[in-house]
Write a structure and sequence with these properties.
The complex is a heterotrimer of chains A (223), B (483) and C (242).
Chain A: H1 18-30, H2 41-64, H3 84-88, H4 93-103, H5 106-110, H6 134-143, E1 149-151, E2 154-156, H7 175-187, H8 198-208, H9 216-219
Antiparallel strand pairs in A: 1-2
Helix pairs in contact in A: 4-7, 6-7, 6-8, 7-8
Chain B: H1 13-20, H2 23-58, H3 71-103, H4 110-132, H5 149-168, H6 177-202, H7 209-242, H8 249-263, H9 279-291, H10 293-303, H11 311-335, H12 337-343, H13 348-377, H14 384-417, H15 423-464, H16 469-482
Helix pairs in contact in B: 1-16, 2-3, 2-4, 2-13, 2-15, 3-4, 3-5, 3-6, 3-7, 3-13, 4-5, 5-6, 6-7, 7-11, 7-13, 8-10, 9-11, 10-11, 11-13, 13-14, 14-15
Chain C: H1 4-30, E1 36-38, E2 43-45, H2 51-63, H3 126-135, E3 147-151, E4 173-177, H4 179-189, H5 206-210, H6 225-229, H7 231-241
The chains are: A mainly alpha (223), B mainly alpha (483), C mainly alpha (242).
């Protein structure tokens, strides 16, 4: 074929007819592989590249697929780690307790400041009861309290409802929640008593069953 | 002889002449020229809209009182006019013409093509009006209001009938790569659009799954519709203009085709890296983008003979193929998380989109149009100055656009990563690049106006005075002589 | 390629396969994602937005706000989203389950809006947003078509914009937001991702877990610093990868 002498931008000349074009490529497709001398070298290289790309893609997919976990937003996540890992790490009991204290009934009587109402509701901040014996505070919150009580030198006589899952209780909090709110109370407003474990709450709950609200005098007999 | 022929053996002159100007072209003249003409009008319209959005980026108060041209709406209008108006119309014409020619028989069901073309353009017009008054969806490349989407579906299906008939009624048993790509695009688009409509419009999936589905649609629109039509044109024009047999065609053309069709849509999730969708969606996309590089390699091997091709069509095709391959490599590169963290949410994304839609698809379409129109009208283009001017302006404009958006996107990415840089500073650093991008849009618009003038002049001359016999035959004779 | 129907079937299969894998696959995983019930809070998250905010989201969508603003915060070691104060945690799929048209966005010419109403230390209020929409700023267009200016009849309307300077209307006139502007602002003020889902927390690496487990001594220290400490190893690891 001779190259066009001068190309006219107004008209692109066809170098071949459609039939010739189709014939030429049709013959190629119909040809036996042995007919081609170039066959051996070129395709092997290409197939090697093709397999290389597929291999890379497969490896990448395997490494960064996060095991197709719908909760995995980070491709580095190990199996079962997404969401589950975070959920397994327990929520901070102080934070949970704070929400419980402020969203439930506690703050209506004891106030968000933990100071209570002088003459009616005992304070929690700085209270020797709140920071005192685990055995006593757990029982108070689980089953409620009824009877005269002395806190920080002042006399109070009011009733506290039961918060645990006990007969007559209106709140039905789980032992976890009881432990969380107690931990919060024992560490807020300058209080500094050790946290309450939910296992301890469960133990007392199992021991006492459906006890009636405790009287302070009864509690003082406990360790 | 055992080596493969590198050149197509010249056909007998008489046969070539009869093959070049036949009833295949003359019967399809009306519908195809209508499609091309409306495509070019939409190209100019979208150019004006793209210029407006580009100006709004550096001067946010430009046209701010016009509620139908907020930046978001103007961008959707420009994109819709470009993709559905220009690429849709021109793509339909190119795919049908190729299938007719390669099928060896005049196109059938041309009435359906004309009806489909009319409804397609009515749909695009209604869609643009709908976006302007606030009915757009928020899915990229599918902003068309929900009420025009079924219209486009049926309009395309009506046009595709002619293509599928030409393919199944072809005179030869064997098929050529162009036919695979063209039939693939004609056949898949209705399925693609309806699959996306079901999960996005009629029974929308929940929450961020909409983003997943929208990305799948946008990627498939490229991999299964636009790219195949453009490649159909490339596979036809390269041997046609150069007169050479495509190297490595026998073993790899089909593999390259199926790689694109099968793997292409899986690269959808690369725009969702780091987003609120499971990590595997982006990971699959990265792996698929890398595997898709093989498709680009096959194209380089098959179509490398395009380099140095003469003529307007040949030069456009060479440029378009270069942009296509470059875009594929850059897509794979920017899909990796280490790079994406720099480029995500910056103007690199629109730059890559322009490289794909303008640099690759439109340039290949331009090449096809310059080759087709003289054969449809039977006369050469009226003006060589306008042809050369168009080619020069769009190439210059596109290069300026891509360079400015690329540089701007990179500085934007670096700035975004630095939490201490406020948005006023980020946009301040971008200003110069955005100004350059506006200038580039202006150049592109000017270039496309030249194309429009040239096209409609050529049409008018032809319709005002039917081509004299000698002129008509001259074109045919030239083709015969050359081969 | 001689076999026509087989060829078309192959095309169709390729399309269906990717659609099934990506769209249906993710839908099977997340399509019925339920709200997260927090025992301590006693309610489920995400909260449902009020109706006016849902209408506002449609205004946001049809004006094309997503062309400049994203609504997705990425994890701490990926981009500077959290360092910019756009949120304290990454966005997860659960955040969006009640949104009819999530506006994730793909481009940032302006700040991310995921947590606009929950920003610390100070989130914009309704007046700030109304004034920005009406008067614009150097880098934000003014959408005056969302407002009407009218003569004050009797008392000034309570919803009239409190404008000062150049943007203020003439004496005796007031600027009233249209219903679209009001719902848009209500939507923007409903954007808050303050609730922390388990899957949104940064992953804990095995090395970090070997340290004294925070679970062992839950309340001996206030855990405020724990979430801040976990991203660091992840960030180093990610950098090493790049």
């Amino acid at each position: 074929m001779s190259a066009p002498v001068k190309s006219d931008p107004r008209l692109d000349r066809a170098a071949v007819s459609d039939d010739a074009l189709l014939d030429a490529h049709e013959q190629l497709l119909g040809r036996q592989p042995d007919d081609q001398a170039h066959y051996r070298l070129l395709p092997l290289n290409l197939l090697f590249i093709f397999s290389g790309l597929i291999f890379f893609g497969g490896t990448y997919l395997n490494r960064y697929s996060a095991h197709f976990d719908p909760r995995a937003y980070n491709e580095e996540v190990a199996p079962g780690q997404a969401g589950a890992a975070a959920a397994a790490a327990p929520a901070d009991p102080v934070a949970v307790g704070k929400k419980l204290f402020n969203n439930a009934a506690c703050n209506t009587c004891h106030q968000s400041t933990g100071l209570g109402t002088p003459g009616a509701i005992p304070p929690l901040a700085g209270s020797e009861w709140a920071q005192g014996s685990e055995e006593r505070v757990i029982r108070i919150v689980l089953y409620g309290l009824q009877g005269p009580i002395t806190v920080k030198g002042a006399q109070f006589n009011s009733a506290m409802p039961a918060f645990g899952k006990v007969a007559g209780g209106g709140f039905n909090w789980s032992d976890d929640k009881i432990a969380a709110v107690l931990t919060y109370v024992r560490q807020e407003w300058g209080n500094s008593a050790p946290p309450i474990a939910k296992e301890k709450v469960a133990e007392i709950h199992a021991k006492e069953g459906d006890h009636k609200p405790w009287a302070p005098a009864e509690l003082e007999k406990l360790p | 002889m055992t080596t493969a022929p590198t050149h197509v053996s010249p056909a007998p002159a008489a046969r070539a002449a009869s093959a070049e100007v036949t009833a295949i072209d003359t019967t399809a003249r009306g519908p195809l020229l209508f499609l091309l003409g409306s495509g070019i009008v939409w190209l100019v319209v979208s150019g004006v809209l793209a210029l407006i959005t580009s100006i709004q980026l550096h001067s946010p108060h430009f046209l701010e009182d016009c509620s139908c041209l907020t930046f978001g709406r103007a961008q959707a209008l420009a994109q819709t006019a470009f993709v559905y108006g220009w690429l849709g119309n021109a793509g339909a014409a190119i795919a049908l013409w190729l299938l007719g020619r390669l099928g060896g028989a005049p196109l059938r069901a041309l009435n359906w093509v004309l009806v489909g073309a009319l409804f397609w353009n009515a749909g695009v017009t209604a869609g643009l009006v709908g976006i302007g008054v606030g009915d757009m969806t928020s899915f990229s490349l599918l902003q068309l209001p929900r009420y025009v989407q079924p219209l486009l579906l049926f309009a395309w299906a009506a046009m595709a009938i002619a293509g599928v008939l030409a393919w199944s009624g072809r005179h030869r048993d064997h098929t050529f790569a162009s036919q695979w790509y063209a039939v693939g695009a004609l056949f898949l688009f209705p399925w693609l659009l309806s699959a996306a409509q079901v999960v996005l419009i009629w029974a929308p999936v929940r929450g961020t799954l909409q983003a997943v589905a929208a990305n799948w649609f946008a990627q498939s629109l490229w991999s299964l519709w636009l790219a195949p039509i453009a490649l159909a044109a490339a596979y036809y024009l390269v041997p046609k203009v150069s007169g050479r047999v495509l190297p490595s065609y026998r073993l790899f053309a089909a593999l390259g085709f199926w790689t694109l069709i099968v793997i292409g849509p899986w690269t959808a999730g690369r725009h969702l890296i780091g987003g609120p969708v499971p990590a595997w969606i982006a990971t699959i996309a990265v792996a698929a983008s890398v595997a898709l590089l093989f498709h680009y390699l096959v194209l380089v091997l098959n179509l490398r003979v395009a380099v140095g091709a003469g003529g307007t069509a040949g030069k456009f095709v060479t440029f378009g193929l270069g942009a296509y391959v470059l875009g594929g490599v850059l897509d794979a590169l920017t899909s990796f998380r280490g790079v994406a963290v720099e480029t995500q949410f910056t103007v690199i994304d629109p730059a890559l989109e322009q490289l794909a839609l303008y640099g690759a698809i439109s340039m290949l379409f331009f090449g096809a149009i310059y080759f087709m129109v003289p054969r449809l009208t039977g006369r050469a283009w009226t003006s060589s100055g306008l042809t050369l001017g168009h080619r020069f302006l769009v190439k210059i404009g596109l290069v300026i656009l891509l360079v400015s958006l690329g540089v701007g996107g990179w500085t934007q990415g670096v700035d975004l990563l630095n939490a201490k840089t406020g948005f006023a500073d980020i946009l301040g650093h971008l200003n110069l690049c955005l100004l350059a991008a506006s200038a580039a849009q202006l150049v592109l618009l000017a270039g496309n106006l030249l194309l429009a003038v040239n096209f409609f002049q050529s049409i008018c001359v032809w319709s005002a005075a039917p081509a004299p016999a000698e002129n008509y035959l001259e074109a045919a004779a030239v083709e015969a002589r050359v081969s | 390629m001689r076999n026509g129907p087989l060829f078309l079937l192959g095309l169709f299969a390729a399309l269906t396969l990717s659609w099934a894998g990506i769209v249906l696959g993710s839908n099977a995983q997340l399509g019925s994602l339920a709200p997260y019930y927090d025992d301590a809070e006693g309610q489920s998250f995400p909260l449902r937005a009020p109706g006016i905010a849902n209408r506002g989201q449609l205004v946001y969508a049809d004006l094309g706000c997503a062309a400049c603003h994203t609504q997705q915060v990425r994890r701490p070691d990926f981009g500077s989203d959290q360092a910019r104060g756009w949120g304290d945690r990454q966005s997860v799929a659960r955040d969006y389950i009640f949104q009819s048209r999530p506006q994730l966005g793909a481009s940032r010419f302006g700040p991310d809006l995921t947590n606009l109403a929950g920003r610390k230390p100070s989130a914009p209020d309704a007046d700030d947003l109304m004034n920005l929409l009406y008067a614009g700023s150097e880098r934000h267009p003014a959408y005056k078509f969302l407002f009407t200016e009218r003569a004050i009849a009797g008392e000034p309307a309570s919803i009239a914009l409190k404008l000062t300077g150049n943007a203020a209307p003439d004496a005796g006139r007031e600027v009233i937001p249209t219903e679209r502007a009001q719902s848009l602002v209500a939507y923007l003020l409903s954007l808050n991702n303050g609730y922390d889902y388990p899957e949104a927390r940064p992953i804990v690496n095995p090395e970090a877990e070997k340290k004294p487990a925070p679970a062992a001594a839950p309340a001996t220290e206030k855990k405020e610093n724990a979430p801040a400490a976990t991203p660091a190893p992840a960030a180093q690891k990610a950098e090493g990868k790049k």
